[in-house]
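Sequence in, structure out.
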Amino acid sequence: MPQPSPEIAARPAPARAGGFGATLRRAWFGTWWHSLTSLALLTAAIFWLPPLADWALWQALWQADAPSCQAARGSGACWAMLAEKYRFILLGRYPQEESWRPVLATGLLLALIIASGLHRCWNRWLPLAWLLVWALFFALMGGGLLGWTAISTDRWGGLPLTLMLSTLSIVLAAPLAVLLALGRRSDMPAIRALCSLYIELVRGVPLISVLFMASFLFPLFLPVGATPDVLLRVLLGIALFAAAYLAETVRAGLQAVPRGQLEAAASVGLGWWQTQRLVVLPQALAAVVPGLMNSFISIFKDSSLITIVSLYELTGSLGLALSGDPEWRPFMLEGYLFITLIYFAVCAAMSRYSLWIEQRQARTHAR
């Protein structure tokens, strides 16, 4: 009869690998290269953050007093400039007595953008909401209705103009980009050649050149008195420029769709347009979400270039607010830091939303 094997003594449980400390060690000191980089960054922070905090916070002036700011130049930030010029920076040359209109229009547009990003709002009423909000936006900004004073587009500026141009140019560029990407992969040589020529031609010139041509050269080819509004020309120029870059991103997604998906769609009797709309495009766009969001962020930041055609968005409004005021002109840095914060907040929100979409797709594929 075999002898029973001796009992094995219980071993202690393995050390817990989770927790904040373990995450911190893996992220900052996981390898020797990470450790050196982390130590270098911490050393730089020790040397640079205290004087930066002293300039930006402890020695800063917050009261709207230009002589005090002039006396404290070089030792502390003058945030009082923002208290004095914030309306001009955010709203541009829009009449002060009508400031409630661009504020309300911007609030409606921001609420629409946020609602469009929520999954619970993705229904048949969303396109109608977009049409309604855009109609209200232009009615509020332009006036001429319900007894509101008419305000020409050359007096629009600041944050409302930045949001309007970037958002509307994305809305106009996205469907054109899809058509260009499909056309560049078309089996018809003429369509493929035209789409390729447009994409390569537009991508070969800077946006400043496109804005210059849309603003100054395009009216030369039109009959006298038939010149469109400069804001409309700039908007179309940005949209056409952005469409070329978005088209290449979409084309990359189209190439990532396996050919078996096309064969499966053909086997169930789907036509070409049905295959693209129901099978190919959903997969292609999902595969290039980071690239699309990167292009959207670039469009939002590139809207600052419209200053060259005398339309003053955020950065242009800042220069306009301080250029004619010698008392506050030396404190341009504080104004640019304020605008940088606005741009960073918007771009960071777009980036986080892109990450949320990717995580949602990952959960869907995991099922």
